Known about the structure:
Elements: H1 3-36, H2 42-74, H3 87-116, H4 121-150
Amino acid sequence: MDDFTIARVVHVVAVLFWIGGVGFVTWVVMPAIRHSESEADRLGKFHAIEGRFAWQAKIWVLLGGASGFWMVHRAGMWSRFAELHFWWMHAMVALWAVFTLMLFVVEPLFLHRRLATSQTPQADFQRMERVHHILIVLALITLAGAIGGSHGLF
């Protein structure tokens, strides 16, 4: 087995757990909190649960990005970023960049402090739900594009 194959395995597993985690949070955790907690307690409950798996999300996002960039470098695929029919590669990088910024910059430097002192916890929880729904839709479009594109559909 060569390094490209290993990178592909790492990439698929990392994306599986990364986007699977986003789906779980969006479609299971947040609705469960919405139905079981009072409006004032939802944000705190989410923060308590999220704190237990945020480190895993960081690992999967890092592994997904590192393995993806390694495959692009190793196979000399940089020129694909200049061709529109490889839009799905742009989508993968853009999605990775959004999650990397959120997990490593926005959340630790701004968002945790902001949410801990929220004067509008219900509105903030609803906003987080909307953002998660937008992100999972973008992730599913990206996944469909990447799977189809890497197999010659586009």
